Amino acid sequence: MRVLLVAYGSRGDVEPMLGLGTALRDLGAEVRVCAPPDFAELSADAGIPLVPLGRSLRETATKAVTGTAKPPAESLSERAARMVTATYESVVAAAEGCDAVVATGLIPAAAAARSAAEELGIRYLFVAFFPSYLPSPHHPPLAWPGRPLPPDETDNRVLWDQNAEHLNALFGAAIDTHRAAVGLPPVDDVRDHVLTDRPWLAADPLLSPWPQSADLDVVQTGAWIRPDERPLPAELEAFLDAGEPPVYVGFGSMPVREAPDVARAAVEAVRARGHRILLSRGWADLAPTDEDGDCFPVGEVNHRALFGRVAAVVHHGGAGTTTTAARAGAPQVVVPQMADQPYWAGRVAELGIGVVHEGPTLTLDSLSAALGEALTPGTRARARDLAAAIRTDGATVAAELLRNTVDPS
Hints:
Elements: E1 2-8, H1 11-26, E2 30-35, H2 40-46, E3 50-52, H3 57-66, H4 76-94, E4 100-105, H5 107-120, E5 123-128, H6 156-181, H7 190-195, E6 200-201, E7 219-220, H8 234-241, E8 247-249, H9 259-272, E9 277-280, E10 295-298, H10 303-307, E11 312-315, H11 319-328, E12 332-334, H12 341-351, E13 354-356, H13 364-374, H14 377-387, H15 394-406
Parallel strand pairs: 1-2, 1-4, 2-3, 4-5, 5-6, 6-7, 8-9, 8-11, 9-10, 11-12, 12-13
């Protein structure tokens, strides 16, 4: 069996795909991944070949967040058309000889992946990593940047209908124009076409349950976790051993505005609570603002090994970081910035395993207050109790399901 994994998105989209890829490879499958070039090293570490998709996502995201990007010379619809064409060309070449394409990420890219699968006559599957990407009467759709949900509308079905209309207006023409150019028929509904009537949900059922409904036949496999057996660097081990558990602060593949100010506020707030600090660089390029020995800069390390040795995890609320911290039993302070992050922040608070930071920008006072709640004995006890119930077999479940789907015999 040969499988192509397509993920046009951040690390939170790519790393779970590498988890699935590893599980598929363990079953004897040949796997490659189509993703932004930023994740070439991550993919190489997993032993899965990467086909670069588009330009550097980190560079694009950093310019957008810091306000250094030039005003776009083309409309969103025009950019979507370019993404559809470029993704299709990459995917149709990379998927040659494959039995299936599994896609996630931005709608235009996933639509192109489905077109490529149709052209090659192979199986297409879509996966979401959090429930609110998928239509349900039990929750509203994800709010798009620059297009907040109408505050006076509370009927989720109406909101999802509006969501479908919005996606059709943004991407329908670009997708249909490209499909016509490669000899494929137009689509009636962009969202339904991309998601299919049986999408997969790769999220832990305790952390992120799917509210069952008759609208969509969702297959929840559990979270796709990439195996990571790397030891922690010796310098980090020495820092951890030199005192009480520190507080980890990091924003993963999320750039932030005024990174030095954010780093300074984080360090001062953690110190105010009497703890040492692990400051993760990430795409925000966070760095210590002084030379005191209580703050240690962290690069690319094994979070699974690290989070079990910290007092709390302060993070942006990505699916992977939330799940890893929950598995480790570490209390969390979630500082959501965008996309699925408010959802994960809400789940952490509902489960009582951490708190939601007030607003997307850290200050000494705001983070100190949030840490005061997260570091209580009750929160730590709930986090430890829940950790034992988090499933670790999601990628294996999905790999076996995919094998049975592609080859029922």
